[in-house]
Amino acid sequence: MSPDATGVDVVVDAVTAVFLVVGALMSLGAAIGLLRFPDLMSRMHAATKPQVLGLFLMLAAIGLQMRTWWVWPVLLVAWIFQLLTAPVSAHMVGRSAYRTKHGHREMLTKDELEAVVQRAAAGQEPRNDR
Predict the structure, then answer these.
(1) For the chain, where are the alpha helices, taking DSSP H only?
(2) Nearest-angstrom CA–CA distance, 15 and 62
(3) Which of 47, 88, 114, 122 is most buried, taking the most CB atoms under 10 A from its CB?
(4) φ, ψ dihedrals at 86, nearest 5°
(5) How far apart are CA 86 and CA 126, in angstroms?
(6) Per residue in 56-108, pLDDT tens?
(7) If 0-12 CB within 10 Å is exposed, 13-18 middle and 19+ buried, where does residue 72 land?
(8) Which residues of 85-95 are buried (b: 16+ CB within 10 A; e: fewer)?
(9) d(Cα 29, Cα 23) in Å, to the nearest integer?
């Protein structure tokens, strides 16, 4: 912080610091969840939810600290790419684990995919009950 910092600079620096700390804690929580959670489904949740929010906070902190308008579109594109790819990849890993019986089905509250997988295995067309 420069000696001639205004009140706005102090507020921006404080918000940036809070975003960086909270974003880092969210990313740390995601990493710990990947290591400590017992099953694949819990690990996928830890890998996607807090990590995407943590990245958003980190990118917002970078944008606030840079104090230029041209950096925001780049940061927004990076966050949108992460927002779109992390849940989709977790979904595909989850479906693959379900089909290969790597998930703990006894830990599921409701198994909505079982009927779909059985119909697909039997060669029947999927039904649209909704």
Answers:
(1) 7-36, 40-66, 71-99, 114-121
(2) 11
(3) 47
(4) -65, -50
(5) 27
(6) 999 999 999 998 889 999 999 999 998 888 888 888 888 788 777 776 767 77
(7) middle
(8) ebeeebeebbe
(9) 10
User: How far is CA 84 from each of CA 45, 81, 89, 97, rounded to the nearest angstrom?
Assistant: 15, 5, 9, 21
The alpha carbon of 57 is separated from its chain's Cα centroid by a whole number of angstroms, namely 12
Grouping H, G, I as helix, E, B as strand and the rest as coil, residue 53 is helix
Q: Which long-range contacts (CB under 8 A, 24 or more apart) does 44-47 make?
A: 44/90, 44/93, 44/94, 45/90, 47/86, 47/90
**In this structure, how many other beta carbons lie within 10 angstroms of the beta carbon of residue 63?**
20
pLDDT tens-digit readout, 11-55 = 999 999 999 999 999 999 989 988 998 888 788 888 888 888 999
| Burial of 61 per CB tally in 10 Å (0-12, 13-18, 19+) | buried
